[in-house]
Amino acid sequence: MTEILEQAFDTLKAGNPEERAEAVTLLGEHAYAPAVPYLAQLVREADPGTRYLAAQALSKIGDEAESAVPDLLVALRFDDMFLRMAITAALINIGHPSVPGLVKALFDDNKAVRRASAKALGKIGSDRAIPPLEVACKDSDAAVRRFANEAIERIQTSVS
Questions:
Q1: For 120-130, what is each residue's pLDDT tens digit?
Q2: Could you list the residue ranges forming a coiled coil in this record (predicted)?
């Protein structure tokens, strides 16, 4: 299996787009952490379909994908709701290292980014996020307010 993963990793770095998509999927399924920098670059620079696959792969790698958090936070602002969902899942699965960036994203100009951030913070469950979520409970967007309230309730329930 190691040989297959190494071959997929080589394809990820230099393969054509179709082969690269298969490699991204395989590396994600096996949580191949050495691919994280390349997957993060794909999230930032590739075509929309490959960005989505790379975000899914990072999500499966989980907390070992911590170094991808800055790229994921940039991509959270891309105007593609499916990509945003995959990125949000990746940030949730990476967990606590995502919290500072998600707190900042809670005050983004884009309401979809604020919504995704509030949802992610609630699922990660860091009590450090409660004060900024309380501020987000006064957001101009009703969905942001709802997600922020739900996040606070979820965090408080998990802490107690």
A1: 999 999 999 99
A2: none
